[in-house]
C-alpha cells in the first residue's frame, strides 16, 4: 500500500529535537513568569473575519496566506486556521472582559498556519511564542517587552542578534507622511516591483519593506516617517530609546521598519540573526494602540511581539545548546520472577521522584547492558531471578563500573542521600 507522507510545509518534531523545544519553552516560561506574564491559550481556528479585521485585508497574510474553509452545519460560516496569535488573544481579552481587570500581561505559544512557499525557517505549519501587554500606553511597557525578548534569546545562548527599532507614529502622523511618500514614489511607479505598484495607493508604507532590489534603491531616498512624528510620538519614541539604553540593550534605528496598518502605532521592532540566511527575523513586534477598538473593544493601548520558534531551533542546533538527556537508573532484568518484579521496582523509584528507564526486551544480560551504556543513565540496576527471590538488586555506577549488591529496601530507605549520590556521579 502507498505510504502517506506529512504535507508540504509541515514536519514532525522527533524526540531528539523535542529536547530543544522543551529547553526553549522552559526558558521562556521561567523568564516570563518572573515578569508576571500569565499564559493564555486560545483556539487554533477562529472566525475568518477576526483575522481580516485584526491583521488587515491589505496584508500578505490575509490576502494570500490564510487557510480558510467553510464550516459544516445548516448555517455555514467562514473559518480560518490562525496565522498568528495576537488577534485571538485580543478577541479573548474583549469577549472575556479582561479589559475590566487592569493591565494584562499575557503570553502564548502554539502552532500557526500560513500558506507560504516552504524553505529553511519558513513552513506552512510553524510555531510562535508571543507576549501581549494590554492596557498600558507607558513607554516602559514597550521597553519591558523588548527587554524580555532579548532576555529570552540571551538565556538560550544565542549570539549575533541585532535589534532594529522604529516608530510608526500615530495614524495622524502617518496620514501626513503617506501623502509625502506617494508624491515621492509616483514618478518611479513603473520601476517599482509589481506588489509595490499595487500598494502605491492601497498601502504605500509597506513599499518600504519590499525585498525587491530596485524598489529598495528607490526607497533609499524617500522621505522618512520619523520626520513626520508629532511631539507626543517623538517623546514616546525617545523615552523607549532612553529606557533601552539604560538597560544596556543595543539597537539601531531603521526608518524602513514599518507595520502598514492603521492600528499599529509608535514602536515597531525586529530582532534578526546573522546566522539564518534569508529568513533572518526571529522576533517581530510593536505597539498596536488601535487594534482592541478595531475588534470592537474599548480604546486600549497595547504592545507585544512574536518569535518564530523554528528559526530559534535552527540557531540552537547550530550551537548545540541543549541539556543532555539525564536518566537516573537503567533497569535491567532477566528471568520470569525478575521480570515480574522489575516494573514494581521501577514504579516505586519513579514515585519517589527518580527517573527510571525499564528495559522491556527480556534479552540476554549482555545486550541489555549495551543499551544501558547508551541510555545516558547514571546508574544501572540489575535484577535476576536470584536477586528477585532475595529482594536485593545489583547497583552499578555507569561512570566507574563499580558494582555492589544491596537490599531493595536499602534503595528506598534514604532517598535524599541517594539523590545526592546520583548527582555526584553524573
Ligand atoms: P517574514 O518576513 O519572515 O515572513 P513576518 O513579518 O510574516 O515574517 P510575523 O507575522 O511578524 O512575521 O511573525 C513573527 C515571527 O514568526 C517572524 O519573525 C518569524 O520568526 C516567524 N514566522 C513567520 N512566518 C513564518 C513561517 N511561515 N514559518 C516559520 N516562521 C515564521
Ligand atoms: Mg511573512
UniProtKB/TrEMBL annotation:
Record-stated family: Belongs to the class-II aminoacyl-tRNA synthetase family.
Which InterPro entries does this one have? aa-tRNA-synth_II, aa-tRNA-synth_II/BPL/LPL, Anticodon-bd, Anticodon-bd_dom_sf, His-tRNA-ligase, HisRS-like_core, HisRS/HisZ, HisRS_anticodon
Q: How does it assemble?
A: Homodimer.
One of the GO BP terms on file: histidyl-tRNA aminoacylation
Q: Which organism is it from?
A: Desertifilum tharense IPPAS B-1220
> What HAMAP family does the entry give?
His_tRNA_synth
Q: Where in the cell is it found?
A: Cytoplasm
Alphabetical list of SUPFAM superfamilies matching this protein:
Class II aaRS ABD-related (SSF52954), Class II aaRS and biotin synthetases (SSF55681)
List the record's Gene Ontology CC terms alphabetically: cytoplasm
Name the enzyme's class: ligase
Its keywords, alphabetically, are: Aminoacyl-tRNA synthetase, ATP-binding, Cytoplasm, Ligase, Nucleotide-binding, Protein biosynthesis
What's the chief localization of this chain? cytoplasm
Report the transmembrane regions from the record.
Answer: none
Q: Which gene encodes it?
A: hisS
Detail which positions bind L-histidine.
84-86, 114, 128, 132, 259, 263-264
Q: In the record, what terms sit under GO molecular function?
A: ATP binding; histidine-tRNA ligase activity
Question: What's the protein here called?
Answer: Histidine--tRNA ligase
- Which residue range or ranges hold the Aminoacyl-transfer RNA synthetases class-II family profile domain? 1-316
* Annotated Pfam families: HGTP_anticodon (PF03129), tRNA-synt_His (PF13393)
PANTHER family reported for this sequence: HISTIDINE--TRNA LIGASE, MITOCHONDRIAL-RELATED, HISTIDYL-TRNA SYNTHETASE
Enzymatic reactions: tRNA(His) + L-histidine + ATP = L-histidyl-tRNA(His) + AMP + diphosphate + H(+)
**Its Enzyme Commission number?**
6.1.1.21
Coiled-coil stretches are none
